[in-house]
Amino acid sequence: MTQMTVQVITPSGICYNHHAAFVLLNTVNGDLGILPRHIAVIATLNIEELKVRRVDDENHVDWIAVNGGIAEVKDNLITIVTDSAERARDIDVSRAERAKMRAEQRLKEAKAQKDIDTVKRAEIALHKALNRLNVSGHR
């Protein structure tokens, strides 16, 4: 069986490095399913979950909260470079809930003040918090 290697790299180093039989990326152009021997591609990622079906067991799926970034697929190696990423098992749910509440409050205040820049930043923070909470549900 042919397999791929998936590496997720953040500024603090490699946070994920495993073999995979299938990977699902959420790109700015839509979902992209990757199987072994996929053609070379570079794609921009959304703030969304990354699904990695491991080779050791077809029911073993790793879920990773990825906060945007770039994915490169080449020669059965998928390299994802992102500002931050967390595996479902590593997400502190209470911290993510607090981040969600803070972002919602900032968003509400920014909309009331009609502060477009702060609205955009608060929306991104909220999206990141919701993504982490969603991924944490896959434990």
From TrEMBL:
Pfam families: ATP-synt_DE, ATP-synt_DE_N. It is a peripheral membrane protein. Its main location: membrane. The keyword Membrane applies. CDD domains: F1-ATPase_delta. Residues 90-137 form the ATP synthase epsilon subunit C-terminal domain. This is ATP synthase epsilon chain. It comes from Pseudolactococcus hodotermopsidis. The lineage of its organism: Bacteria, Bacillati, Bacillota, Bacilli, Lactobacillales. The gene is atpC.
